[in-house]
Amino acid sequence: MIDSGPPRSKDRNLPAARVPLAGRLAVVLACGVAFPQTSRADGDALLTDDTWRYRSAGDLAVDGGLVLGFPAALPTGLAKGIGAGVTTGQKLAWGARASWVTATESSLPWTVTHSDLRLRITGAVQKEAGRGTLGLRLGLGGTLVHESRVRNQGMRAGLSGTDLESSAFAMLPAADLDAVIALHVAGPWLLVTSGGPSVDVLDGKLHAGWNAQLGVAWQP
Amino acid sequence: MMRSAVVIGSVAVVGLGGLIGLAGGCSDLSGFGGAVPPLATVRVEVTGDFASVRVPGPIQPALRVALVWGAQWLTEPLCILPPDDAGAAAVIAAGCRDAFGFVPDRVATNAPLAPDGSAQLSLLDLPAPDVMVGDVTARVAYASVVVYDDRDGDGTLTLGRPNRLRGREDDRPDDQATSTKDLVYAASFVSMTEPDTRLAFREGGFNTAAAFYPRSGCGDPLPSFSIVSAGGFSAQDALAAQLRGALPPEDPGACREVSTDVPVAVVFRAPAELHELACVERRTDSSIRYREPPADVPDLTNRTTGCAKVPDFGSGKGSGMIQLAISGRSDDSCAGLTHYVLRGCREDALCELPDWDITATPPSWWPCPVQAVQ
Prior knowledge:
The complex is a heterodimer of chains A (about 220) and B (about 375). By secondary structure, chain A is mainly beta. Chain A has one domain: Beta Barrel (Porin), CATH 2.40.160.20. Chain A has 1 helix and 8 strands, in the order αββββββββ. Chain A has an 8-stranded antiparallel β-barrel. In chain A, strand 3 (about 90-105) and strand 4 form a beta hairpin. The longest helix of chain A is centred in the N-terminal third of the chain and has 14 residues, at about 20-35. Chain A is flat, with a radius of gyration of 30 Å. Mean pLDDT of chain A is about 85; it is low at about 1-15. Chain B contains 5 helices and 17 strands. The N and C termini of chain B lie far apart (about 115 Å). In chain B, strand 5 and strand 6 (about 140-150) form a beta hairpin. The longest helix of chain B has 22 residues, at about 1-25. Chain B has a domain at about 40-75 and about 100-285. The model of chain B has no long low-confidence stretch (mean pLDDT about 90). The chains are: A mainly beta (about 220), B alpha+beta (about 375). Chains A and B meet through strand 3, strand 4, strand 5 and strand 6 of A and helix 1 of B.
């Protein structure tokens, strides 16, 4: 027996429920064009012209977000964490920032985890451009590094004490130079991203790195 | 006013930390650097008269100590079954290593031997899983402390391989022999048939029924690294125990399980007694690689040959099939046997569908009967 395929719309005895989708869409579109009406939901719309209106009256801005960067004292790795800051001022602004990031890397004998608490006093020059603000921010301060080292295979070998793991703290002088882009989104809220090079002093030598942050800011 | 207080407070807190950083700069961080503590340290004390066992050489001996993990090895049947005749006995004596001897797998670490006969071996890595025997819940590795003259000057104990002859159309590169110039002068674990001291690494439980360099009747090795000793057993006791399905018992009085703080004592011996400590085995499961005899006579200089029946363990499959067993050269650093059969397969001389069968036309130099007299 030969299959004749699905029935076509021109078949006179075809049930209504089996009219092809394209045909039904054409009917709906034709009705929409012929009988235009205002939707009942339009009067209580969630989005209005005021929705994306922003206000920027104050000098104070508080921001926070996710931070990525190069570890302050490790020769490799990607540190991840959170950061926050407060800034006051217009074209010239100053403030303070803090972030906490952590990175874990391994060599053959060691697994090393560094947690960096970065504390900075910042000064910035910034300029408004449309809904956004562009700025260049210099931060000076210190990075408190907590190091945790574990001897690989040490637990299986029965090592204990400092032979197995050790920890240390260090406070490193550091500086960051970040390019900052802030975009007013709605009301007092901004989307802020920043990034740039950083440097700290480790064992008397300069240790270069970078930082980047993506977050939100509140500017009442 | 409120906003200023927020900013000033934040700056004060963060700034204090920052200023400490600027002023301080102190660092006790190590990162990936610094000294790496060894996972275990084995102290070695060598005694005896080296001059009395020294093999003269062109240069001054450079004595070093190596820690060598052992392989799980089973001898081939020809080497442990009673020989058919004197010829077979001769080739077994020349080509078989000690069936109960320590078989090295790989060298873990080396250290120079101090003039006072002491050395310190630092293990920076655990034994790899392939040198450990057992499953992940109960496995163990054993190592022998080997004192050697580093004649090739490479700083490590070089392990050799038996020198076997090739078969017809046999060009496998992995059959190349490796000769070692290094001479072994002392070892803590030479054979299970004599007293031994070994480094053990035990992970998890300990399987007392395992036949991996067994110490039946002794205590379990301590968890992780330990030094264990045993008094040894005779080959006859081992074979008798094997027939009973048991492990040969050790003298409990000679057993010892101590931490690695206790030094390992070894005594200088003649290198001729210890050369197998520097020889690895390609096959560790008692299997044999059979070869088709070449058309032309192989170089049999300094080799011992013997004709022997192919072992069939009483199954009757052998039907008196004869193999030609050839030892390595007498000046080779490692003992080994080459097995030629006129009919068979590479892995099984008694295979039903042979890869070769030249029983009707054996090579002109073939010294053995085609088939043993039934």
